[in-house]
Amino acid sequence: MREARTGYIEVAFNGSLENIPLDAQFSLPAKGVTAIFGPPGCGKTTLARCIAGVQRLPIGFCAVDGEIWQDETTFRPPHRRPVAYVFRPPIPLAHWSVRRTLLYRASQSTPTLIDFDGVVELLALAPLLERSPSHLSAAERQRLALGSALLGQPRLLLLDDPLIVLDRSAKREILPFLERMRETLPLPMIYISDDIADIERLADHLVMMKDGVVTSAGPLNVVQSDPVLARRGEAAVCLDTLVGGYDGRYGLIMLRLNRARLAIPGVPLRPGAQLRLRIAASDVSIACAPPRTSSILNVFPARIKGSLPFGEAEVTLVLALETGRSGVPLLARITRRSFDALRLSNGADVFAEVARAVPFAAADRYLQCLPRSA
To answer: Which site from 35, 51, 87, 309 is most exposed, i.e. has the minimal number of CB atoms within 10 Å?
Structure first.
């Protein structure tokens, strides 16, 4: 009999539901955001419903932080699983105010995760409390839905494509709140989406699905260097760095990544804050020797772990930056001509030149006024 491990989300389902096959297995840390990504119809929602207990496969295992929800002898129905399942913005009761809706939800559970006041502050709901939920925008209704879910004191928050019906403006409104939840609450979240841009911004771990099968699972930047994603036209890797300081003379944020140091243009940020960078494969070039003079500030020793053809004229290189014991993944897209001219091969030691690293807008809330000479 399989045992559950403390500190992990463990899933193993095998079978078919309504002629939809499912072969899904992964084990990832029960912290932060685990994103499940794949094309429409690949089985993401079916997997979510199995985790929530809404649907049941006879052959299945599901455990969260050491607590078994389903195995050979156990099946907890949805109401006995400490999971909050949130999807598209619901239409709440029109005759209840936002305050009453939240207070009713809060009255049903002891506040072990967050209380009413904490939810109002976390999701900036104070201006909405006396309004009727039926008069809220889609983004405001989604914030109310998230608040109601949190007041249920879940041990797992399951977000099934919660932004799918929102326009771009509404998405920009909701995403910072999801990031704030991730950083503030000791609550693991599973986020299901077919929008890789949202996943790059939110996720700590990534599960890839295709035709009902989990094809890859692991830390976000590791799975991003998997051939399925590395072959995409907009292939990129996301790296979480720490703010180390600010060069006021040149307007550069100084960042730490393991033993490496990076510098990117920007405004002052709070030292010690985490800043996620998106580095596109097209913004990384390769040199066989450290450049003596160059306009590129961020150059790192790296090793080629793999090479993938991209069209007729280009190659995508999967790199491991030598910034510590375990190489940090990175992608570089270069011409096939350069690949041959530099005589590159798997296992070769090179230098990765990062021409551009784009920070995610979430860092805006870390801004602080530092003197320009800092």
So the answer is: 309
Q: What is the pTM of this model?
A: 0.89
User: Per residue in 287-305, pLDDT tens?
Assistant: 999 888 889 999 999 999 9
113 CA to centre of own chain:
21
Q: How far apart are CA 195 and CA 211, in angstroms?
A: 17
Predicted confidence (pLDDT) per residue in 15-44, tens digit:
998 788 999 999 999 999 999 999 988 999
State in Å, rounded, how far the first CA of the chain is from the last one: 58
What gap in Å lies between CA 9 and CA 28, rounded to an integer? 5
Around Cβ 100, how many Cβ atoms within 10 Å?
14
Cα distance between residue 309 and residue 312, in whole Å: 8
Q: Top-level CATH class of 8-219?
A: alpha beta
All structural domains of the chain with their residue ranges: 8-219, 236-366
Cα angle, residue 76 at apex, residues 75 and 80 outer, rounded to 5°: 175
d(CA 258, CA 14): 39
| Residue-wise pLDDT tens digits, 57-87 | 989 999 999 999 999 999 999 999 999 999 7
Cβ neighbour number for residue 317 with a 10 Å cutoff = 27
Q: Tell me if 253 sits within 8 A of 243, measured CB to CB.
A: yes
Cα(46)–Cα(90) distance, integer angstroms: 20
Report, at the CATH architecture level, how domain 236-366 is classified.
Beta Barrel (2.40)
CA dihedral of 238, 239, 242, 243, whole degrees rounded to 10: -60
Spans of the chain below 70 pLDDT? 1, 88-94, 165, 323-326, 361-374
Q: Provide the 10 A C-beta neighbour count for residue 124.
A: 14
Taken as a whole, the chain contains a residue count of 374
